[in-house]
Structures are given as C-alpha cells and as structure tokens.
Amino acid sequence: MAAVVDLVCRRGLRAAELGTVADLAGVSGSWLRGFFADVEALVGEVVRIQVRDVFEGPGRRLMAAVSADDLYQWRDAVTARYRATWISAGYPLGIVVHEVTGRDGRASRALAASLGPWQSALEGAFVRLSDRGELAPGSRPAELATAVMGALVGAMGRFRKAGTSEDVLEPFDIMLRHVLAAPGR
User: Fold this and answer.
1) What is the pTM (predicted TM-score) of this model?
2) What is the SS3 string spanning the chain?
3) Which residue ranges form the domains of the chain, and what is each CATH number?
C-alpha cells in the first residue's frame, strides 16, 4: 500500500500500473494480481485505508456529538489526523481525492462509499443538535452534512500538496462554523 500511495502522490493515478507498483513494493506482479484484479481495485483499497486513517479515530467523537463544541472537537481531530498523514509528496488522501474525483471507476466509488458512513454520522450529529435547538429553525441535517463533507473533501483535494500549512482544511472549517453559527430556536 505504501508503494501505491507513494506512486500516486508523486506521479498521479495515471502512473499507477500493477507492474510498476509490484516493482516499487518489491513483490512479483503475479503475487500482486492475486490480491487485486487491476489498478482500480488496488487504488480503491488505498482510498479505504486513507479514509480510515483520517476519519476512524475522530469518528467516535462525531458519533457521540451532541453540541457545537463536540463538532468543533471533531473538526480539530480530523484536521490533526489529516495533517499527520503528510509525506514529502503531499497529503495522501488529498492527492487520492484529487486524482479520483470526477472519474467513473471503482476508486471513485470506493471514495464515495468510504466517506458515506462519516457523512451519515455527521447528519446524525446535526439531527441531535437540531433536536436540542442548536441549529437554525428549518435546518435540514442531511443537506448540512452534504455541505460540510463537500467542503472537507474539496479542501482535501485542493490542498493536497500544501505541506503543513495551518489553513490546509480552511474551507471545511469555514463551512462548519457557518452552519453552527446560524441562530437556534
């Protein structure tokens, strides 16, 4: 997996071929093909791993969120986990997001499927906040979750090579603050 991440980060998805990955990983091509039918399947697995690495730890915080403060703590944890993945070529998840977004393939579907549970968890948090009167009247939790996750994924793709910049996920932060700043009932 590290060889695929390195290859995609340095040369893009187009450069990812099973033979090249096998060479970089020091394994035989036939061995690698025993696990992955093609490069799309391999990149799909990389997507799942990268999403898990960034979201799984903070996800527990999200699933228990009942206040704006809880969501800000989740935001901070996701941002910290994302920053922690930085390698010299950039942010692996950001680069993968940039590479697969807009493509019709298994890697793109793997990205959507991997992010889906986190968007659903965010929607659940917004439902809990709405029930407590912490969101604007008439707020639609599903739409808010789509907007916040869209800002997050967009920021990841945009700032894929931003180094350790403090504002790496700023669009995500702005969207979440905007949603939570709306006056409650």
Assistant:
1) 0.84
2) CHHHHHHHHHHCHHHCCHHHHHHHHCCCHHHHHHHCCCHHHHHHHHHHHHHHHHHHHHHHHHHCCCCHHHHHHHHHHHHHHHHHCCECCECHHHHHHHHHCCCCCHHHHHHHHHHHHHHHHHHHHHHHHHHCCCCCCCCCHHHHHHHHHHHHHHHHHHCCCCCCCCCCCHHHHHHHHHHHHCCCC
3) 54-181 (1.10.357)
